[in-house]
Amino acid sequence: MTATDQDFNSYYVSEIEPALARANRRRTIRMRIVVGLAALGTIGFCAIAALALVGMTNHPGALAAFALGFGGLLGAGVLYQGLTNEYKRVLTGGVCSYLGFDYKLGGFDFPLARFHPLLPRFTGAKLEDRIRGRVGDVDFELCEGKLSRKDAKWRTIMLAYSFSKPFKGETCVVADTDWIGNAIERLRQAGERVRLESSQFEERFEVFSTDQLEARYLLTPRFMEQILELTQRFNNKRGVALAFHESQLLIAIRIGSMARRFEIGNVFGEVRDGKERAYKILTELNLVTDIVSVLGLAGSRPAEAIQGKGVAG
């Protein structure tokens, strides 16, 4: 067992495990209420179906049955979601506290508008799991977004890192898709198309910038190699995009329609595998340090250290 494992185990036993035990005790009572409300909701909709079979949809009892059905299922869903959120605060929030990160499940501000040049067109966005912190000498902010439009839904991890190189313009690096997709990007991106020397990078990405010289200053041959390595690390050749914006490096990583990060699983039963779930979240947070390490953002300080703590692999 490594020293990091020992540190995290000690923290889990002293901080997370007692909070998890309290949540488990509350879960028993709340799940009984969830089941009761769901049962009432089912009875209500069954009553509506029975009235419909005998042609009594206008019966005064139909409205009461609908209210019972809708209210019961809605209440069960709200209560279950609240229970899930409590477990997330215990497990995801607990792991973030161990790492020295600030975690918020909801009710936070996040600069989504800054990421618009990196994201496909969307009409709806639900943001969750905002995490802030510091890796070596690099400040970061992370958020998971559930984005949607009429024909599609997908999840994207959005990260903002402080960037040591000074710059004044805006430079965006987006996936090279097909002639239609690239034509759309040319219309919606600020600045002009930038041609770079790396043919491998040009095959994967389209680069746009308000300052051609600055774009080449930022996208050095080594940094382009590191971006290509990042796409390989996440096995995502078309779903990684970057932007240099207002002293920050912005990164968007599309993770698909169903995949979710920093989740704690279902809570229909007591969470007895809390340590396993906590370690899974700890491993997922390697995303933050992997990017710092792969892109060499941390300068002279070790990218593997998070506030003096390593992340267990």
From TrEMBL:
Question: A single Pfam family, by name?
Answer: DUF3137
- Report keywords, A-Z: Membrane, Transmembrane, Transmembrane helix
At the top level, the lineage of the source is Bacteria
Membrane spanning segments where?
33-56, 62-80
Protein known as: DUF3137 domain-containing protein
